[in-house]
Design a protein that fits this description.
The protein contains 13 helices and 13 strands. It has about 350 residues and is of the alpha/beta class. It folds into 2 domains: about 130 residues, Leucine Dehydrogenase, chain A, domain 1 (Rossmann fold, 3-Layer(aba) Sandwich); about 170 residues, 3-Layer(aba) Sandwich (Rossmann fold). Strands 1, 2, 3, 4, 5, 6 and 7 form a 7-stranded mixed β-sheet that branches. Strands 10-9-8-11-12-13 form a 6-stranded parallel β-sheet, sandwiched between helices. The structure holds nicotinamide-adenine-dinucleotide (NAD). Nicotinamide-adenine-dinucleotide binds next to α5 and α6.
Length: about 350
């Protein structure tokens, strides 16, 4: 393979390392951002997305890397926060040479960045990356795809959120709207169905993902992604992109509880959590509720692949949120501001 890799180390305030990389011979282009390694190596998945510009990709990787620091600290894991984004159309660019070249870039961080799955990066891609670097988790021969674990944590977080927002312990009586039924959204939907939920509406921009749901669960309703946020449902579950909760979408949202797998759900982390709290909508902090996959892959890092132990740790996400919501009620502060005030002291 031609070695035409170019690197540009960027200096960005608040981040330890940010790297832009490009290798035209395999059409590889992307960023790796390390927000913090104070708690431990920065672990965070690789997202593959057709970003419309380099700036969009950079903004995403910075927000995601910071979110991983929050997530590791929120889950009390000795890990830091980092993330990678690959720019382009996954279906057109994926190849063994592409992922081997990417693994070489991961190796430049000498273990201070550990990668894993994220949007459009699956276990087969991770297998290829693992052929050229040891700094990768979520391998099929180890802890596997983190998404079912993330979904399990989201499900327990949803239970805790509904106990406060409605309040009920019986989610089967509630209606749900799920934005995105990919890896995490689909497994989460399965858990809802397993627990007797009958009123579920979904949206996804990928028709194949919708067909998969309709084939398995014919009773699930489908709407377009613009309609989903404003549906009259009890619980809104963002399981696709971040930034969807903002001043523009707030007036259209009817759900009293919002809890899902998507990272960085608020567009403006300073102002939006307060806005939603004032509007009486309980929003589960994404970096707490979606930590299940991180908790499970952490067991791969420490070489303890005990699924029972992982499951017990992931289920604790529900209790972590219950404690947070009790504090929220006592202190009259929104859940994000309150939890971040503790988390940010730890890195
Ligand atoms: P995925 O790519 O498997 O699924 C995302 C789905 O969302 C896809 O089916 C996609 O078509 C759909 N989608 C994208 N834009 C949409 C839109 N505007 N409206 C409706 N659907 C849309 O990804 P995933 O692994 O399920 O991750 C989903 C979210 O959860 C991401 O924000 C990710 O960062 C976060 N997350 C994932 C994990 C994990 O273990 N996979 C862990 C923590 C957080």
């Amino acid at each position: 393979m031609e070695n035409d890799l170019t690197l540009d180390w960027l200096s960005i305030s608040g981040y330890e390392k940010v790297l832009y990389f490009k290798q035209p011979s395999v059409q590889l282009e992307g960023y790796i951002a390390i927000h913090s390694t104070k708690r431990g190596p920065a672990l965070g998945g690789t997202r593959f997305w057709p970003y419309s510009s380099q700036d969009d990709a950079l903004t995403d990787v910075l927000r995601l890397a910071q979110g991983m620091s929050y997530k590791a600290a929120g889950a009390e894991l000795p890990l830091g926060g980092g993330k990678a984004v690959l720019i382009g159309h996954p279906n057109q660019l994926k190849s063994p040479a592409y992922f081997h070249a990417y693994a070489h870039v991961v190796n430049l961080f000498q273990g201070t960045y550990i990668t894993a799955e994220d949007m459009n990066i699956g276990t087969e891609d991770i297998r290829l990356i693992a052929e050229k670097t040891v700094h990768v988790v979520g391998r099929t021969d180890k802890s596997g795809n983190p998404s079912p674990w993330t979904a399990l944590g989201v499900f327990h977080g949803v239970l805790a959120t509904c106990e406060v927002a409605y309040p009920t312990r019986d989610v089967s009586s509630l209606s749900f709207g799920i934005q995105g039924v990919g890896e995490t959204g689909f497994h989460f939907l399965q858990l809802l169905v397993d627990h007797g939920v009958k009123h579920i509406t979904i949206a996804d921009i990928n028709p194949e993902k919708i067909t998969r749901v309709q084939t398995r669960f014919p009773f699930v309703k489908v709407v377009d992604d613009h309609t989903l946020l404003s549906l009259p449902v009890d619980v809104l579950c963002p399981c696709a992109f971040g930034g969807i909760l903002n001043a523009h979408t707030l007036p259209t949202i009817q759900a009293k509880a919002i809890a899902g797998s998507a990272n960085n759900i608020f567009l403006d982390l300073e102002k939006d959590p307060h806005r939603f709290h004032e509007a009486g909508i309980l929003v589960a902090p994404d970096y707490i509720i979606n930590a299940g996959g991180l908790i499970n892959v952490f067991h791969e890092v420490i070489n303890d692949l005990d699924p029972q132990r992982s499951k017990a740790e992931v289920v604790k996400i529900g209790d972590r949120l219950r404690r947070l919501y009790q504090d929220v009620a006592a202190k009259h502060v929104n859940p994000f501001t309150l939890s971040l005030s503790t988390i940010q002291k730890t890195f």
